[in-house]
Amino acid sequence: MGPDMGLDEDALDYHEREPPGKVAIATTKPTNTQRDLSLAYSPGVAAPCRKIDADETDAYKYTAKGNLVGVVSNGSAVLGLGDIGAQASKPVMEGKGVLFKRFADIDVFDIELAHDGVDAFVESVAAMEPTFGGINLEDIKAPECFAIEERLRDRMDIPVFHDDQHGTAIISGAGLINALDIVGKDIEEIEVAFSGAGAAAVSCAKFYASLGVPHEQITMCDIDGVLSQERADAGDLSPHAEPFAQGVEPGELADAIEGADVLVGLSVGGIVSQEMIRSMADEPIVFSMANPDPEIGYEEAKAARDDQVIMATGRSDYPNMVNNVLGFPFIFRGALDVRATEINEGMKVAAAKALAELAREDVPDQVVKAYGDQPLQFGPEYILPKPLDPRVLFEVAPAVADAAMESGVARESLDLAAYRERLEARLGKSREMMRVVLNKAKSDPKRVALGEGDDEKMIRAAYQLQDQGIAEPVLLGDRDEITDLTGDLGLDFDPEVVDPEEADNEAYADRLHDLRKRKGVTRREAADLVSRDSAYYGSVMVEQGDADALLTGLTHSHPSALRPPLQVVGTAPDAEYVAGVYMLTFANRVIFCADATVNLDPTAEQLAEITHHVAETARSFDVDPRVALLSYSDFGSVENEGTAKPREAVELLHDDPSVDFPVDGEMQADTAVVEDILADTYGFAELEGPANCLVFPNLEAGNIGYKLLQRLGGADAIGPMLAGMDEPVHVIQRGDEVKDIVNLAAVAVVDAQEE
């Protein structure tokens, strides 16, 4: 944490801004009425107190204990700042709490203790066991940190985890697994040299041994050189480092590094030279993790071996940052959710292996954008996932929970599939809603044609669809380009490809000509369309039953992409119009909006049909529709041609015996979504609760409305879902991300299942 005046000034302003600091307490239950307060405190609170008095485990049922971690420090070894004391360490501990909450939705109390001695510190923390579900020890100097953690783990029946030791070990261990895979070396045959013999270094060495590195093939060095048997016999080493000196000859850091396959730096900056790197074994792995200045710089290490070095540091401005935030939030999440009594070695190994495996997967667009669109693909410069990758939560936490259950330290048993879904729901309502559709899709995957199949996003989406068992993707596009791009992307799959230019298109051309010959399309033009336009080819493919669904439009405007499916596939027998439906998800509610992409100025009859479409779409997500037709009028408060159309549509719907869902209007947007307005002022309305399906009066209002809700309201948008087609077809928006394509493909599969 070296001085940076610009950064320092910004950080001071950030922390000083009202309210000071970074954390606050928020209530999780209503506190609006006297009744609420009597439940939250006296006299109602006595009931859970009596329950816990009778059975202490009920604290997990009636209090926040099960989701509360204590971040505890005495400030004796703050990264880059040293022994600054308990009070000065508080901003760091608050920051740790922010990371727990941001990445794993875990609440934190930061506890700064003004204790220098081990005994007093241990007694203070142990006495807080009734408060917390787990303890994260932080920034405590060695060797005291070893004794503190060991004694607290023995005394407490909740997880105690010193992140400065184990976090670095777990994250770098994941990097080691992947780096060894890339260079093709066996973990049981490598030689590892350590620069540093403090808490983090000793913990890393022990953890690497757990991963399979033979103990005798690890050589550690401190400021006085190699930790040798001679120094151990002289009583020169700490009890925790001494095991790594057994049988080791004396020497200097350079001696330890020579011939080593792996160098792990956890010491001070600038002490490793290029000559030392050149003395290492072929294809060396260098984890230079001293902060803020590594033992050897990234460029220097690369240059020393003509770029044939896999390099990781503790810095964010270079590839392969060993960042502890990849570990502790998710390790605690899994441990808390099974009410583990400790975080054991098996749980740590499971976390490392889950991280290593995730780094081999295709990276979501949102993650790539968060890191400045830099290429993120498994290889020498990407051996660890990025902290902002949302998948870390539901990959690492279940692995940790599973290891806890397997090792017998879990007090609760979890269904891991259901647990993963709960974790995904923590990341937002959209994931919870999409999980319904994804599970339906996986139960019976269908054949989905992907137009513009030679686009990178389509190829990556096809990989995910096949890998996750959501669909059987068929890429439509140039075969050679698809093959080359698949290889460049490092995707381990052999996609089904149909190249319209090389395919036998006679039957498709005949069918397109037959459908469009009275619309001015000649036989030659039909042949040209199916051979050069994947949207036409895919539309005929679906219409002829050679594919169950089609996605198209990624590189075209929406109207031009919509035209081929409408001309070839057309609307369903019971539909005259199609509609574009968006699902918008907020923290605690979901709204379906129509029509946002197709009908410019719908009539009352069209609005009625659009209402049917949006209700059907909601039901495909297991949502019971409550539909409001919107206007700037409430139930006749304004009389003109514009307000009359939604009112007439409601009359048509109320007279339609097939309508089996509540619908009303015309009404203003706030009337539709605010329960108090709807119930208090318009109690006669057909809706028994706020609307979850909104039908806009025209395309302009619908497009403006959903985009404002998405951008200013913080909603996640899924869509547009094209409702009313005779076969499942969806038109992707230009600029959609891979996850949007995968989501729409899943919707299309469910549509096809219902067909």
TrEMBL record:
CDD domains tied to this protein: NAD_bind_2_malic_enz
Species assigned in the record: Halarchaeum salinum
GO biological process, one term: malate metabolic process
Domain annotation Malic enzyme N-terminal: ranges: 20-153
Protein name listed in UniProt: NADP-dependent malic enzyme
Malic enzyme NAD-binding domain span: 165-405
Top-rank lineage group of the source organism: Archaea
Cofactor needs: Mn(2+); Mg(2+)
Membership in a protein family: In the N-terminal section; belongs to the malic enzymes family. In the C-terminal section; belongs to the phosphate acetyltransferase and butyryltransferase family.
UniProt-recorded Gene Ontology molecular function terms: acyltransferase activity; malic enzyme activity; metal ion binding; NAD binding; oxidoreductase activity, acting on the CH-OH group of donors, NAD or NADP as acceptor
Keyword list, A-Z: Metal-binding, Multifunctional enzyme, Oxidoreductase
SUPFAM superfamilies recorded: Aminoacid dehydrogenase-like, N-terminal domain, Isocitrate/Isopropylmalate dehydrogenase-like, NAD(P)-binding Rossmann-fold domains
